[in-house]
Amino acid sequence: MSKSAIYTANTTTQAVAVGGTISLGSIIRRFGCSVNLNGNGINLKDGGYYDVDVSVTAAPTAIGTVTVTLFRNGVAVPGATASSAVSTANNPVNLSIAALVRENCCGDDSTLTIVLTGTASSVTNVGVVVEKI
């Protein structure tokens, strides 16, 4: 059982430019003090490991590849990327990321964000679950 968890969701359509940070919406459920939503990022406050699961529905505005990546303090988390090629503009795709992030101890707080690259898109659904394990 985790000591802290958060689930955020955003079902409002948002236009996201290439390199833009995806809005995580609002807190649906939250338990404990180690994780919290702060603007478009989730703050990690205590040392340890965090399981991160992200689900994004995006409709690229042009033909190409849409990509979402998990960032920690502005740096891409290795392997925490999902992408899909589309041959028709405005064709929605579902993208999922699962990652394990380590937070150092001693007040070295981090912020997790989701960044879109590849093709500008209309993002219609975002769900993020972060659990301290």
Structural key phrases:
single chain, 133 residues, mainly beta, 11 strands, 0% helix
How would you explain this protein's 3D organization?
This protein is mainly beta and 133 residues long. The chain is built from no helices and eleven strands. It has strands at 4-10, 14-16, 26-31, 35-38, 41-44, 48-60, 64-72, 75-86, 93-103, 110-117, 121-132. The strands form two sheets. Strands 1, 2, 3, 6, 9 and 11 form a six-stranded antiparallel beta sheet that branches. The chain has a five-stranded antiparallel beta sheet with strand order 4-5-10-7-8, with no helix packed on it. The radius of gyration is 15 Å and the shape is elongated. The termini are close together. The model has no long low-confidence stretch (mean pLDDT 95).
Q: What does the secondary structure layout of this molecule look like, with pairings?
A:
Layout: E1 4-10, E2 14-16, E3 26-31, E4 35-38, E5 41-44, E6 48-60, E7 64-72, E8 75-86, E9 93-103, E10 110-117, E11 121-132
Beta-strand proportion:
over 45%
Q: Indicate the overall shape.
A: elongated
Terminal-residue CA separation: 7 Å
Radius of gyration, rounded?
15 Å
- Helix and strand succession? EEEEEEEEEEE
Count of DSSP-assigned helices: 0
Low-confidence stretches: none
